[in-house]
Amino acid sequence: MNPLMVRNLTVAYHRKPVLQEVSFSVPEGKLIGIIGPNGAGKSTLLKAILRLVPAASGEVLIYGKPYKAQRKLIGYVPQRGSVDWDFPTNALDVVLMGRYGHIGWIKRPGKEDVKLALSCLEKVGMENYAHRQINQLSGGQQQRVFLARALAQDATIYFMDEPFAGVDAATEKAIISLLNELKAQGKTVLVVHHDLHTVQEYFDWVLLLNMRVIGHGPTDEVFTVENLQKTYGGRLTFLDQGKLLVKHE
Ligand SMILES: Nc1ncnc2c1ncn2[C@@H]1O[C@H](COP(=O)(O)OP(=O)(O)OP(=O)(O)O)[C@@H](O)[C@H]1O
Predict the structure, then answer these.
(1) Contact 87 CB / ligand 1 (< 6 Å)
(2) What confidence tens digit (pLDDT) does each residue in 76-114 have?
(3) What is d(CA 83, CA 245) in angstroms, rounded to the nearest whole number?
(4) Which domains, from first to last, does the chain contain?
(5) Which of 59, 141, 209, 222 is the most exposed place for a label (fewest CB within 10 A)?
(6) pTM here?
């Protein structure tokens, strides 16, 4: 069964459409890149799938059922800029929030939950920062903590909004190897991604988006010069041998 099926999804902010009749589905156990220019509606797509913004019309099914019935299967890593980092909490607590779906909001996390949260921090190389306030972490470290929280959720399908934004090369490597680990466990990971140079290396499958779906499918078939030109319009230039140069938007 498809982990995610989106049919005719239309979303508007103040009556101005941002996504129009978006339809696609994704296969299980793949790393999927959501690619498109600034303002294409990539974050909005994730938020509409997760019911964080209302859809004007359309349908979203996660493993054949609506979001509400499948909440426990879903992990979300929001864009770093969209989070209030001054909220007084430490890294360990942020990761423990990932466990609330399993333990319920009323019960306190037990020893096992803390142990698991610490092991997730260790996986992202942040075990020494467990008790550090989140507003005292660097951007890349905050991103790692958010990934640890997603790991603690133990989800089946993950949605990540620009996990590589503003991180250094070492953190980017750490994140991509983590994503590959999730994939090896049979999980499906959708990632909003900006850097066209790494798309072919990172993703098995892509969704090209610019208000509408320009293309979706295996990267080899869909990530073509023609489709990219349709997605980015005149903002792309191609150098020799198809090498890409993205003009700043
Ligand atoms: N809360 C909001 N209220 C009104 N308009 C919004 C809101 N959020 C986003 N938009 C508008 O919707 C469009 C799509 O935004 P969205 O953030 O989904 O794009 P994106 O593809 O994720 O962009 P980026 O690559 O810059 O992050 C943009 O024109 C944006 O200005």
Answers:
(1) no
(2) 888 876 666 667 789 999 998 887 666 555 566 778 889
(3) 31
(4) 1-63+159-165+195-248 (3.40.50.300)
(5) 59
(6) 0.89
Ligand 1 site, residue 249, Cβ cutoff 6 A: no
Q: Which helix (H) or strand (E) holds 142?
A: helix 139-153
CB 142 less than 6 A from any atom of ligand 1:
no
ipTM of model:
0.95
Would you say 242 and 225 are in contact if contact means Cβ atoms under 8 Å apart?
yes
**Ligand 1: which atom is nearest the Cα of residue 45?**
18
102-107's contacts with Cβ under 8 Å and 24+ in sequence apart are 102/72, 102/154
**pLDDT tens by residue, 151-195:** 898 899 999 999 888 888 888 888 899 899 999 999 999 999 988
Residue type for position 235: R
